[in-house]
Each structure stands twice: as C-alpha cells, then as structure tokens.
C-alpha cells in the first residue's frame, strides 16, 4: 500500500517535456506569433514610421516630421467630413443597431414560435461581406432602377437615395445596421441562454416585474458579452470601407478615413507617407475607444 501511494505521488509530479514536445509547442505557438508580427504589427509599425516621411513607393524616402499631420488637420478638406462620418457610423451602430440586436435576442429568447426561422433569417446578412451588402443596397436604392422608388411610385421625380449627400449616408448606415444587428443578436442570444434561470426566479419572488428583472438581474450578468459587442461595434464602425467603396468609391457624402487611406496609398498620387498618417489617426481613434471601453468594463467588474 505505501508503495502504491508513493507511485501515485510520483505520477502527480510536474511532467517533464521532451525535446519533441518542446518542438511541437514551439511550432504551434511560433507560427501564429510570426504571422501576427508579420501581418499585423509589422505593417502597423511600418505605417507609424512612414507617417513621418514623404514617399511615393518608388523613389527615396524623405523625412518630413509632422508635416503630414499638419497638412492633414489644416489643409486637407476631405479629412474632417470623413472623421465625422466615422463617428456617425459609431454612434448609429452603437446606439441604434446594437440595442435593436439586443431587443431581438430578448424576444427570441422567450421561445416565440418559429424562433429558429427568425434566427436564421436575421443572421443571414452576417455571412455577407459589406461589399455584397453595398451591391444589394444599389439594387434597392438606385435612383432609376431601384426597387424602393418603384414601390413608392416615384417614376417622374425619383429620389436619388445614393447620390444625394444628405440622404446616402443614412441609407448606407441602414444597410450596415442590417448586417450588424444579426451579429449582435446571435452574441446576446448566446449570452441569454447561459443566464442562470434561478436568478430570474429569485427576482420574480422578490416582486420584480419583467423589465426590472432584465435591467437589474439579467443585463448585469451579460457584462462579458457587452465587452465583446462593444469592441466589435467600434471595430466595425471605424474600419468600414467595403460598402461605401462599392456604392460610389466613398465620395459625395460617403467619405470615410479608410477610403482616404486607400486613395492616398494606392491611388494615382501614391502619397504613402500621407496615407500612413491617416491610417495612424484611424488606429489612434480605434485604440482610444477600445481601451477606454475595456478599462471601464474591467473597473466595473472589479467593483462587483
């Protein structure tokens, strides 16, 4: 018996990795890290460095300091409309599309009839890229051959939904929200399925109505999902590119920072240094929102 106990004790000791184990671990960890450094951090650091230079991609690189940023903020008219549109994207997705996705998740979580059909239908746009969503928007909102103008009967004086700068940004936001809502709905629906039913029962016994139970009991337990949804919303809003480029190349009221980056880096001007400066501004804004949101969420988690 003591011999068996000693043998079991030896088995519970720390396992020694063989050289083969270390090689496998090194490959499994090394390849993703290498790809991350090569495809993400390498270009990011290169963009930061190039933002302080003047380079057309072919000739010599000339150091210009902060001249690109000074020109960007003071002498580049498309910048401020693009920055405003990016913030409008963030506000619309954050305060309209995301709450609507949460509402749909709550309704489907109640077990309504044909809930599987509704889930599949609402989630279907998520599998489409924003470029495809842009082409669908053109079919629906086109001035001369669009479905919407045909339905409302504006054949003599059709509304230019995608050409009018006062209207097209809202049309594009509706199309982007159509896709974003389904994604948010699935995330919150998964979170709602994991909520302990005993919490709802205890709240009901304490006399809480359905609304009070959700906002005071259920919603606080969804904090991890809120973090994920918040970060995804910020990323989706600030990296938006495909849909506006598919509609009118991001011009005439649909300017975005990502479009300006593309136009300057791979456009006819080939101002890689200036385009990199716009990319750095977009990166800074993205990190600012994401880090601030995560810090607030983590502080709230610690208070609990």
From TrEMBL:
The keyword RNA-binding is annotated on this UniProt entry: no
Stated name of the protein: Carbohydrate ABC transporter permease
Superkingdom in the source lineage: Bacteria
Pfam families per the UniProt record, alphabetical: BPD_transp_1
Residue stretches making up the ABC transmembrane type-1 domain: 83-295
UniProt membrane topology term: Multi-pass membrane protein
Protein keywords: Cell membrane, Membrane, Transmembrane, Transmembrane helix, Transport
Family listed: Belongs to the binding-protein-dependent transport system permease family.
Subcellular location field: Cell membrane
Residues that span the membrane, as ranges: 21-42, 87-108, 120-141, 167-190, 272-295
This protein's record includes keyword Ribosomal protein: no
